[in-house]
Every structure is written in structure tokens, then in C-alpha cells.
Amino acid sequence: MESKRCFTNPFSDYKGSLLTGQSCESGVPLILRKVESILQQLPTQGGQEGGLYGGLAGVAYMLYQVSQSKLFSSQRESYLHRACTLIESCVLYYDNEQDRETRASFLLGGAGVYAVAALIYKASGLKDFNKPLEKFKELWRICVPLGFLECGSDELFVGRSGYLCAALVIKQKLGVEIHTTSPLHTHYTTNTLHCKQPYSQPQPQPQPQNNLP
């Protein structure tokens, strides 16, 4: 059958098996080099701001994720140790964060930092992994008001959706339910629907202008 693509594809279709030399193991050296390159570029001071998206917490999350793979079992201990060091400084930073509105942000604020700290501490065998988890739980009240953020209260980066995403990650990784049996679930569902209602309403159409004299 003639291809409907708008460009010539010189490669054969994937048949379900990797080519010679292509395997998960073959990518390990590349990943190790990339991780090492990132670690060498970390600032000697600062970097705690920016959350998971643009700060040291994101690097800590990377180290955690890599450490969970069996392919990197020999690096697991050192990666988790470095991740603990990085995330601890970020937790201290967001403990003193003055911007209350963005503290509940998953990708850009404290919620994501606390969630990742709990994951890293738990993976490291630290008993106090519940401390950042409790800090995460306390942030739910920030997200309850319908329009608590001018830039979008249901945003994934800074709004309710991000907080719920972090709660889902915690459930998947730690098996801990966050507020699913409390009024928070109803609050979030109702407020999310109310926030979206204005976007579902028909918008007024511009009236044609009569340019005749």
C-alpha cells in the first residue's frame, strides 16, 4: 500500500524486536555520562528556588528516578545520598517561602519539593520521611478557594491540578492516600468544575462594522 506520509522514510517499520546492539543496557553509559555532566554543572551556592521545574529539587528527583532502576544498582546508594543532600536544602528553602500562593505548586513550588523529599527519604530508609509528607498535606487549604491564583487556579504547574498530580505520585510510590476520604476531594472536584464553566460558555461574537458613510 502506498505510503500517505508527506516525506520519505528510509527506515523499516518496527517489528517488535531491537536491532543488534540496541538494548536497555546499552544506554547505561550514556545516562551515566549525562547524570555526571548535570552534577558537575550544579551551582556551588543557591539553586533551591524554582521547584522541580528549574531548581536543585529537579536534579534530586532525577537521581531518585535513576536510583530506582535495577540497571543502576551500583549507583543507587551514592545517587540517593546526593539526592538527600540536594532536597534537604530545598525543603529548608520552601519552609521559609513567603509566597503563600505558589507554595502548593507541584512543579514550581513547595508541594513538589515536599513530595519528592518524602520519596527520597523513604527510598533511603530514613524514618522521618513522614515529615515532608505532613508538610505536603498541610498545603491543601491553599488550593481550596475557587480562584486562589490569578494565573490559573487549576494549572498543572502552580494550581490544583499540580497538587493532585503530586498526591497521585505519592500514592503510586508510597501507597499513601492523600485526603481522598476528606472534604478536600469534594472541594477540589467542585471547584475545578466551577473554574472551567466560564470557558464552556458561548463567547459574544464581534458585531460587523458598517464602513459606509
Report on this model:
This is LanC 3. One of its GO terms (biological process) is peptide modification. InterPro entries: 6hp_glycosidase-like_sf, LANC-like. This protein is mostly helical and 213 residues long. Helix content is 51%, strand content 0%. It contains nine helices and no strands. α5 packs antiparallel against α6 (130-138). The longest helix is centred in the middle third of the chain and has 20 residues, at 76-95. It is globular, with a radius of gyration of 23 Å. It starts with 27 loop residues before the first helix and ends in a 13-residue tail after the last helix. The mean pLDDT is 81.
List keywords for this structure.
mainly alpha, 213 residues, globular
Number of DSSP E strands: 0
Beta content comes to under 5%
The ordered string of helix (H) and strand (E) elements is HHHHHHHHH
Number of helices: 9
Distance between the termini: 61 Å
Which helices and strands appear, and what pairs or packs with what?
Layout: H1 28-40, H2 51-54, H3 56-67, H4 76-95, H5 110-123, H6 130-138, H7 140-143, H8 160-174, H9 183-200
Helix pairs in contact: 3-4, 3-5, 4-5, 5-6, 5-8
Please summarize what this structure is.
The protein has 213 residues and is mainly alpha-helical.
